[in-house]
Predict the 3D structure of the following.
Amino acid sequence: MIKNQESGRLKYLLFVPTMLVLISMTIVPFIFSLLTSLTNYKATEPERWSFVGLDNFVRALTDKDVQISFLNTVIYVGCAVFFEFILGILIALLLNRKMKGISVIRMLLLLPMMATPVAVGLMWRWLFNTDFGIFNYYLSAWFGITGPNWLGDHALAMPVVVLVDIWQWTPFMVLSLLAGLQSLPDDPVEAAWMDGASPLQLFWHVTLPQLRPVILVVLLIRMIDAFKSFDVVWTLTNGGPGLSTELLSLRVYRVAFKFWETGYASAISWLFLILVIVITSQFIRFLYRETSK
């Protein structure tokens, strides 16, 4: 009996180092950022700070640069996730069949995901370079057209950034949806074929309803990840030209580490967190409602 009690205590004691690390790396910075957001703290002047209450939050909500960054983030996440899903489901349907070399194709699909974001951003920055980028070269060589300044044009910079994100993360959609397709039961599909359903009817009325929980989970994961995007956009455009591609993550970085307004940056981060929580909670609620049907 005594040995069992000692082993039980030891079991809980073994959790203590892990819990201390988790607390020091997550909860402590979490609380510190909340407290900092209520002050005018600056990293360059740590001794000259004062409590300002909700002034930083009011300032962030009325700041035009933050509003532009917010709109850019919504456009970026919405467009990227939408097109990644459309391409992902189409490619997954094509790969969900027996064909030669299918395993090689699936392996090649992993390559964009395996590349580091900074490397991806630098690679595409060279490809879209105005003077010696490959796209402008072929526009000139094949069509005699002078290529545009892809990353320096206000109208083109955001589509380019979205395109790069689609290139890197569509494989995630493909592999996730393909796994979902291969896990579906065959009986409903065979029954629909016997009833004379067309391929489109089969997909819309049989496959898609069964795949809906997988779709919602994949969209949720990808959306949360897209909200955190920083590396690719930073290396591609540095948030420019102007503020045309500056996301909220870049705005927080710029305010915190270029203007050194740590308190204000913390307030923007908290508003960013609230935005993500609201959107993801609605997705989760919709997911539970759909899966409970």
